[in-house]
Amino acid sequence: MYALKVTALAGGVGAARFLTGLSRLIREEELSVIVNTGDDIKLFGLHISPDVDIVTYTLAGIVDEEKGWGIKGDSFRYLDMLKRYNTSSTWFNVGDQDLATHVYRTHRLAQGASLSEVAREVSHSLGLKTKILPMSNDSFETHITTPRGSMHFEEYFVKDQCRDEILNIEFRGASSAKPAPQVLDAILEADRVIVCPSNPIVSIGTILSVNGIRETLQQTAARVTAVSPIVAGMALKGPADKMLQRFGWEVSAYGVAKIYADFLDAFVIDVKDVKEKSRIEKLGIDVLVTNTVMKSLEDKVSLATAVLES
Amino acid sequence: MYALKVTALAGGVGAARFLTGLSRLIREEELSVIVNTGDDIKLFGLHISPDVDIVTYTLAGIVDEEKGWGIKGDSFRYLDMLKRYNTSSTWFNVGDQDLATHVYRTHRLAQGASLSEVAREVSHSLGLKTKILPMSNDSFETHITTPRGSMHFEEYFVKDQCRDEILNIEFRGASSAKPAPQVLDAILEADRVIVCPSNPIVSIGTILSVNGIRETLQQTAARVTAVSPIVAGMALKGPADKMLQRFGWEVSAYGVAKIYADFLDAFVIDVKDVKEKSRIEKLGIDVLVTNTVMKSLEDKVSLATAVLES
C-alpha cells in the first residue's frame, strides 16, 4: 500500500478498469475520482450519469465486468416492458437493478440535491469510501454532429455505435459549468493526480473544459501523470481515434500528450509506442513505457503501480 | 354475447375480478371503465395509478391473479436495489415490469399528456380495446387520518395494512376535480351502467365526488346496477366495513344501497344477504340475489351475467 492521497480524472469503462487496480494500492478514503458528466442524459425523465455509475459500480465490485457497465447479473425486464410502450427511445440499456440508481438520482435531484450529493449517497450506500466527484453539478451535455444532424453523445455512442462520421463536437453548458464542490480542492490537495486512460476529448476533455479545472491542474503541486488511451495508433475502446483525427490531432500517444502538455508531468505509454518516447519527452514530459493493455486484475495492478512509481 | 354498451365504475382488485367476467360477455370495444384515481400516489417522483393499472393489467390478461395487482411472474430486483439507497419509502411493491408503466406514465405526464391519454396509450400498447377512463385528469388524493396522523391512502392500505383506527377520510382535490374527457358521455351513452363491487367510500365514493359524475348517474337513461361489496356484514377485501362503520353507515348490503340510492336502479346482493332484499326494495331499488363471491372464472362470468340480466 502507498500512503498517498490520489485524485483521478475519469471517464467510463477504461478509467474504471484502471481504478480497479489503483484501488488495490492505496487506502479507499485516500482516493478521489473526478468523473465526466458530459455523457449524462435524460431518458424517460430519468437522469442517467453513465460514467459516474460505471466508476461507482466498478469500485463497489458490482459492475458487469464483461460489458464494463451496468450491474453484474442484472436483468432487463423493465426495459423489455417499456419497449411495449415506446420503441423509439428505448435504445439505452437500463437494467432492473441499475434503474434504481437512476430513479433515486432523479428523485433526489428533484428534491434539490446536487449530482455530488447523490453520488456520495449512492456510493456510501454501496459501501464505498472513495470520493466519487461528478466534475460539475451544472447542466453539461456532449453533443455530436454527424451528417444526419446533432445528437446526444450517448445516442451516437450507444444507439448508433459510433457509425457516422463526426463533423463537430459540442460541449453544451461548458461555458457556464462550475466545478462541483471539492473538485478543485481534490486536485490541489492530492499528492498525485492521475488522468485515467479515457477518451481525451469527450471524457477527459469535458472535465478539462469545466471552468477552472485545467488551470488548477497547471497550478497544483501534485505530480500529474496520464495514461495513454491510444496504443499503436488506435483507441483501445470507443471513438477516441476518430475524434483525434477529425480535430487534427495526431492519432498516437504523442497526439494525446500534446493535448495534456500544459499540465502533464509524466505520461505512461504502451510498450508498442516506445518509439514515441523521445518525441513526448521533448514536450517536457517524463515518459514511462510499460504494458498499458489491462486484461487481468494483475495487469490493472501492474499498470497502477507503474503510474504511482512514474 | 350481449349487444350492449356498458360503462363500469371501478376501484381495484374486486372490480377487476368482476370485469374479467363481464369482458367475456360483451364486445371489448363496447366496454368503458371509469376508474378511481384517488389512490394515485407519487413515490420517488413516479406517478403510480394503482387502480388504473390493476384494471388494465387484469383486462389485458397479464395481472398477477394471486395477488390481484402487478404483473404475473414479475421480479422485484429494482425494488431490492432501491432499498439499498432508501429504506423509508420503499414499502410500495413495484415490480420490474410494472415499473415500466410508472416510468412511462410519469414521463408522458411531464410532457403534458393527461392521465386519460396515458391510460389509452398503455392499454392500447397492451392490446386492449376496452376504454380505460381515469375518473379525472386533475390531482386527487385520498388521505386517511389515524391517531398517528394523516397519511396517503396507499400508505394506510399497503404500508400499514389498514392497522390503525380511521378518524377521518379526506378527498384532496375533490372540490376542483373535473371528470376526465369521455367520462360523463360514457355514463350518458351507455345502455347499462355497472357499479363494480368496490369500496363504496374510497373507490366508488371518490368517483362519485368528482364534479358532475353523481348528477350524471342520476340523469342517465341507462339502467344503473351495483354489485354489493359487502357480504354477510363484511367486506370481501379491504377496509370498506371499517369505513362504513366509522361514518355511521350500516355495514351491510343495505348500508351500501342507501349510499347509492339516489342513482341506483338495481342492486345485486349475495345469497347470504337475502333477508335484506325487502328493505333495499323499499328504497325503490330492484334487488337480485345471487352468489357474488368470485373465485373461479365461472363465478365471475355468472355474476356478470346476473348483473346484465338484472
Descriptive notes:
The structure is a homodimer of 310-residue chains. Chain A is α/β, with parallel strands linked by helices and 310 residues long. Chain A has helices spanning 13-22, 50-59, 77-85, 96-110, 115-125, 153-159, 183-189, 204-209, 213-219, 240-246, 253-260, 277-281, 297-309, and strands spanning 6-10, 31-35, 41-43, 46-48, 131-134, 141-146, 149-152, 168-172, 192-195, 223-227, 230-231, 234-235, 266-270, 286-290. In chain A, the strands form four sheets. A seven-stranded parallel sheet of chain A has the order 5-2-1-9-10-13-14, sandwiched between helices. In chain A, helix 1 (13-22) packs across helix 13 (297-309), helix 4 packs across helix 5 (115-125) and helix 7 packs parallel to helix 9. The radius of gyration of chain A is 18 Å and the shape is globular. The two termini of chain A are 16 Å apart. Chain A binds chain B through residues 44-46, 71, 74-75, 77-82, 84-86, 96-101, 103-104, 106-107, 110, 121-122, 125-126, and chain B through 44-46, 71, 74-75, 77-82, 84-86, 96-101, 103-104, 106-107, 110, 121-122, 125-126.
Beta strand % of chain A: 15-25%
Decide which structural class fits the backbone of chain A: alpha/beta
Low-confidence stretches of chain A: none
The greatest interface between two protein chains, and residues involved on each side, is: A-B, 30 and 30 residues
**Fraction of residues of chain A in helices?**
25-40%
Number of strands of chain A: 14
Oligomerization: homodimer
Number of helices of chain A: 13
Q: How do the strands of the widest beta sheet of chain A line up side by side?
A: 5-2-1-9-10-13-14
User: Any idea what the shape of chain A is?
Assistant: globular
Order of helices and strands of chain A: EHEEEHHHHEEEHEHEHHEEEHHEHEH
**End-to-end distance of chain A, in Å?**
16 Å
Mean pLDDT figure of chain A: 96
